[in-house]
Every structure is written in C-alpha cells, then in structure tokens.
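Researcher: Here's the sequence for the chain we discussed earlier.
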Amino acid sequence: MADDYAHWFLKRRRLRLMDRERWVEWNAEWVAEEERCQPGFSQRLRGAALASLDGDDIETVRTALSALTAVGVADDIPRLEELSARGGEVAKDCGTAIYEIKHRVSGA
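Model: Thanks. This is the structure I predict for it:
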C-alpha cells in the first residue's frame, strides 16, 4: 500500500530520471537509504509508483518508472508492457524499466 511519504518522494522527484548519468546507481542508493531508515519503504514506494502510472503529469509518470527500476518486481512487467504499447513519451522509459527489473530480479 502506498503512503503519503512515498507519494511525496515521487512528486518531489527525489529519484533521477532515466536521462541522467548514473541514474540507476543513485536511485538504488536513495531507495536503500530510505529502506534502512523506514523498513517497508521500498514496498510503499512500489505501490505509489504503480498508482502514479496513469497520471497526467508526465514527469511524475517518468519518475514512477525510474522508481520501479529499483523496487519493481516481475509481476509489474505486464503493466509496464501495456503502458509501453500505448506509445508516446514514456514508451522508451517503460522498455528501460522492464529491462532493469528483469536484470535486477535475475541477479544478472
């Protein structure tokens, strides 16, 4: 379940977007730090990110996709594939998020 802090974390763009250098490492570090301070934060951030995917604010959607690269699970991939199939600005970010989730989950 998402919470206010997790939504704030997304809205305040605490995560790097995919067009920034070293974004994967930075996001993983930030989420890990939040998880250390607030156990369960990763799951709440995942919920907030999934809930934000249908929003109208493209930057929030892109930030949510960046969050899912750090906290998404294999079960999230069909939702991202559906969003990607619609095309538009976020299709590339969806593809990147899917790749990163698969890579992180497999431990490759």
